[in-house]
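Tutorial handout. Part one gives the primary structure; part two gives the three-dimensional structure as tokens.
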Amino acid sequence: MNEPIVRALGIHKIYNASMHNELHILKGIDIEIEKGRIVSIVGPSGAGKSTLLHILGGLDKPSRGSVILAGEDIYKIKDAARSRIRNKKVGFVFQFFHLLAELDVLENVMLPAMMNGGGRPKAVVRKSAETLLDRFGIGNRLRHRPAELSGGEQQRAAIARALINEPDVILCDEPTGNLDSASSAVIFGFIEELNKAKGQSFIVATHDEAIAARSHRTLHIKDGVIE
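Part two.
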């Protein structure tokens, strides 16, 4: 068995905890995600998939519980330290892409590396971004704005952006949710290719059973618990 890349222990997430209408989204979740694996998290809308993903990636603090990432209990360290770990070790891909409209594709992909403070020269970052975009078949779209790209092209750019800092784990929140079946298959093909070539771990929240079937492991979440 491979070493865990992320481990979550007793994760609860409660909104409005001090009020009568509290919403208990996650209810004591324990999971381990092994290095080099593609893991899908499936379940109905409102089950807590996205919330769990955000907690695993250091974006949203749990009400109770621990997340061990890069050997650190990330919610017991200072915000700045958690941000450094997140920026270096984790990549994020979202359903709605979240590309910045005022930047072209190349600039969008380069942005996390330029903000990371890792010391890589801009020319090196640019070359890495161009290589990723070429690999994803949109190397001819470097200077286009996001609005000029198809949905599938925007998601390829978003994945390239998630990979620019060479993270150990990439968290994908409904990465094919806005795409047709053909584009979805292409996008997941890129995920499989990267997993095999680089050994990077992917955690994918999805409604798509076809995507889940191609993963190494599938976790089913319902009513805030892993079944």
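Part three, for discussion. The mean pLDDT is 91. The chain has one domain: 35-61+77-226.
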